[in-house]
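quick q for whoever's on today - can somebody do inverse folding on this one?? i tried earlier but teh output was garbage lol. tokens:
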């Protein structure tokens, strides 16, 4: 019953801009809203849920907008009778048909997939499912993903070769990593995020990694 109520409350979505009216009804006050003369307004660009019992806005900044044929890394968040619901670092739901996977998935299972289709409300169906056992998910800004991959995969190869980690970089800003020096990998990824605007970044990251490995040998 609780899941049914949650689905009912979040079925309708509305994009709101700062200062736009969210509701005139008396509701619990959530995040990214403010009250003026008894009315609730958005303080951020984001998504509101008119049917929810709480007046709040989910900011759009930093979230992934699904794109057809994108490779993503996701985490199983729930399931229905015939599908799994997948968190892909988006405000929109994504789904896997249970018939399309060999393994039974549980909440918290990590997968990679290709976005097969995106409907008119940006909910996505996933295919080519790969299930991961173990490893970690590193979160980055989706807009930084092209720099983490690099031209023709050059940056990705530098990261793999110098950390020994197995990596899958999702277009949704989630990176699955296992084995190798995960701490060094995270340092390198944060460096890429900070300096993504600079030229010759691949060589700089490679030099950084070699220096870091040299320090560990002292």
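ok took a stab at it. sequence:
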């Amino acid at each position: 019953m609780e899941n049914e109520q949650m689905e009912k409350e979040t079925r309708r979505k509305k994009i709101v801009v700062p200062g736009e009216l969210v509701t005139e009804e008396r509701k619990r006050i959530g995040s990214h809203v403010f009250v003026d003369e008894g009315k609730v307004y958005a303080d951020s660009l984001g998504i509101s849920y008119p049917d929810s019992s709480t007046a709040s806005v989910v900011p759009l900044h930093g979230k992934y907008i699904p794109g057809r044929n994108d490779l993503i890394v996701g985490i199983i968040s729930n399931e229905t009778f015939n599908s799994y619901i997948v968190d892909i670092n988006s405000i929109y739901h994504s789904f896997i048909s249970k018939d399309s996977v060999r393994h039974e998935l549980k909440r918290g299972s990590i997968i990679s997939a290709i976005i097969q289709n995106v409907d008119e409300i940006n909910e996505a169906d996933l295919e080519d499912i790969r299930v991961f056992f173990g490893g970690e998910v590193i979160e980055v800004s989706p807009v930084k993903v092209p720099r983490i991959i690099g031209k023709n995969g050059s940056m990705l190869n530098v990261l793999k070769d110098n950390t020994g980690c197995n990596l899958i970089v999702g277009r949704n800003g989630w990176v699955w990593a296992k084995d190798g020096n995960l701490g060094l990998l995270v340092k390198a990824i944060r460096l890429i995020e900070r300096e993504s605007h600079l030229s010759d970044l691949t060589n700089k990251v490679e030099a950084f990694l070699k220096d870091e490995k040299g320090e560990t040998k002292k």
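fwiw The two ends are 59 Å apart (CA to CA). also Residues 2-59 form a domain with the OB fold (Dihydrolipoamide Acetyltransferase, E2P) fold (CATH 2.40.50.100). so keep that in mind when u check it
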